[in-house]
Amino acid sequence: MLLQKYFETRMQMIDDGLNAALDFDKRYAGQLKEAMVKAVIPGGKRWRPLLLISIFDVLTGMKKNNKLMPDAIHAACAVELVHNAGLIHDDLPSVMNKKERRGQPAIHQEYGNAIAILAGDALYTLAFELISQIKDPAAANLAIRSLAINSKSYGLIGGQAVALASKRRVMKINTLRYIDMKKVGSLLLASSDIACILASADDDTRQIMNDYAMNLGMAYQMIADISKDYVRGGEDLDFSEDYVPAAKSGYTGLLGFDKARKQVEKMLEESSSSLDAFPNNAALQEFIQMIAEKLP
């Protein structure tokens, strides 16, 4: 019950931060701003910002009145804005051609391709404006750099490019892993890395948390593949299966059911044991449990 209350409280902080960031004067470029809001609000599960804040809380001792919490909220909301910018662009007809998102028309379906492209661009830039509001200049610089690295051609956007190039090809296991590590894992990695930056964590702790976050993303994707009702990315992580042309191009087809399942179990076990050194880690263990419950 306390854990549920914790997540509800943190989710409200995130929603308040996103609403504040998207509170526009719509006298000019009103359609663009409306599309930006619709892409983000009410949104999905908010995995990435919740993960960032949870790691930050664990590393700073779960303080009730943490003076650095506003910085963590700015960073968490920035990651979520980048995530939704990526979704807008991913859904475009020239990319993955997805007509719906979260049960509603995709942004390009409702506002047209041009506004969708501009809305994605605007959310990317808004994200970096938001994360720049971190008070400590050194921490802000490091956080901006981490978000940029995990968003650019070596991160989220690079994963989208490889997914697009692989759309009608039989997938190789290394390519599939690369796509998932970038399209899904990059912003989870940014979330953990920025949380560590804000908490002034040492390099060892930063590596542990970054491995933990990446394992979560990869385990989730593999479980989604193993499940018979597989939809790549599912509702929670919000990415389409369109780049996988056939069942044999998924983890189950490439590795076999048993091997794929064992790899997931190993990743989740390693993630759980890596948290033993951190007190009050129940929130981070809950992320593992939520993913493990999906394993068939």
Please provide a written account of the structure.
The protein is mostly helical and 296 residues long. It has one domain (2-292): Farnesyl Diphosphate Synthase, CATH 1.10.600.10. It has helices at 2-21, 30-40, 47-59, 69-91, 107-111, 113-131, 137-151, 156-165, 173-183, 185-198, 203-226, 234-237, 251-255, 257-274, 282-292, and strands at residues 100-101, 104-105. Helix 4 (69-91) runs antiparallel to helix 6. Residues 229-247 have low confidence and may be disordered.
Low-pLDDT sequence parts: 229-247
Q: Mean pLDDT, as a whole number?
A: 90
End-to-end CA span: 26 Å
Strand order of the largest sheet: 1-2
Helix percent reads 55-70%
Please work out how many helical segments DSSP would assign.
15
CATH topology: Farnesyl Diphosphate Synthase
Give the secondary structure arrangement, pairings included:
Elements: H1 2-21, H2 30-40, H3 47-59, H4 69-91, E1 100-101, E2 104-105, H5 107-111, H6 113-131, H7 137-151, H8 156-165, H9 173-183, H10 185-198, H11 203-226, H12 234-237, H13 251-255, H14 257-274, H15 282-292
Antiparallel strand pairs: 1-2
Summarize the structure.
With 296 residues, the protein is mainly α.
